[in-house]
Design a protein that fits this description.
The radius of gyration is 18 Å and the shape is globular. The relative contact order is 0.11. A hairpin with a 5-residue loop joins strand 14 and strand 15. It folds into two domains: about 140 residues, no CATH class; about 160 residues, Methylamine Dehydrogenase, Chain H (7 Propeller). With about 300 residues, the protein is mostly beta strands. The strands form five sheets. A five-stranded mixed sheet has the order 9-10-11-12-16. The chain has a four-stranded antiparallel sheet with strand order 1-2-3-4, with no helix packed on it. Strands 5-6-7-8 form a four-stranded antiparallel sheet, with no helix packed on it. The chain has two helices and 20 strands. About 5% of the residues lie in helices and about 35% in strands.
């Protein structure tokens, strides 16, 4: 990135990472790392001659007026949402501490694009778009995903909230599909989706793109964008085509109208993370991978 100086030490560990081709308009691939313990995000600019990042860095600090917002717990790149020439879009969240009643845990999400920063820093107030969760205790924005163009022609952002037990009656955890235009921002519309059969909805969100990329992926192999969700504990993965989602109005129970329900492996305890990969097995089609949140651990690869 293009910051002239950065005096702060680089974090020795990160809680979330995203890769962006052009956040800073530098013409170089950038990587973004969130660290909730610092309540900040930091980004490094890659060298055109080497994939290894250089020490040119920018930070975005969390809101110091909030009580433990945990800014940077999740970050994701949306690709070129706002412009095809002035950098790609980074989305970062501040969900708060889910288990603490004193945390500002209604949650917040922020979108930034094409900013070079001043003296190694981008102000949180300079976000191109932001959104505050409506209810305290929901930890809005615990999970973020680039879903690709599943609503309109611009990338949508998946927002998972595993601690949300108040937004929808009888539903454990929620997920929102954020979308909009370059004028309104990526959170202008955010319909609620969930699996009624699952616990801790929003644990995993995946779609028609990967972080920081504009390359469209078709999970079904028919050229149409699709996306899916699953809770930490539930019987299956639910996947919905763009056309199916467009035909449905209001809150959406993916148990009811998903195009495909994919069963999980036998004895699967719970899904801690997962998503879409461009092509794991070399057949020319995107694949899915999920990790099991058990003591021994397991990874499931689906194609």
């Amino acid at each position: 990135m293009t910051a002239a100086s950065w005096a702060r030490p680089w974090p020795d560990s990160a809680t979330s990472t995203a890769t962006e081709p052009l956040i800073s308009r530098s013409g170089r691939r950038d990587s973004t790392h969130g660290r909730a313990g610092w309540s900040s995000c930091a980004a490094r600019q890659g060298s055109p001659a080497s994939p290894s990042p250089t020490l040119r860095s920018i930070t975005i600090d969390g809101d110091a007026t909030l009580n433990r917002p945990q800014f940077g717990l999740a970050v994701v790149g949306l690709g070129k949402f706002y412009s095809t020439t002035t950098g790609t879009t980074l989305v970062a969240s501040a969900p708060g501490v889910a288990s603490s009643a004193t945390s500002d845990n209604q949650g917040r999400v922020y979108a930034f694009h094409g900013q070079a920063g001043v003296n190694g820093s981008i102000s949180l107030a300079g976000a191109d778009h932001s959104l505050v969760g409506t209810v305290k205790g929901t930890s809005f924005g615990q999970v973020l995903a680039n879903l690709g163009a599943v609503v309109n022609t611009l990338p949508s952002v998946g927002i998972g909230n595993t601690a949300d037990k108040v937004t929808a009656a009888g539903i454990n955890g929620t997920a929102f599909v954020g979308s909009g235009t370059s004028a309104t921002g990526p959170f202008a519309s955010k319909p609620l989706v969930y699996q009624k059969s699952s616990l801790f909805n929003g644990s995993v969100f995946f779609g028609a793109a990967v972080s920081g990329s504009d390359t469209a992926l078709s999970i079904f192999g028919d050229g149409q964008p699709a996306f899916g969700i699953m809770g930490f504990q539930g019987p299956h993965i639910s996947i919905v085509r763009k056309s199916t989602f467009a035909a449905h109005a209001g809150d959406a129970d993916f148990d009811v109208f998903a195009d495909v329900q994919v069963p999980l492996p036998s004895g699967w305890f719970g899904t801690s993370s997962g998503g879409v990969s461009p092509d794991l097995d070399g057949d020319g089609h995107p694949d899915l991978q999920f990790s099991e949140g058990s003591d021994a651990g397991r990874i499931a690869l689906l194609w």
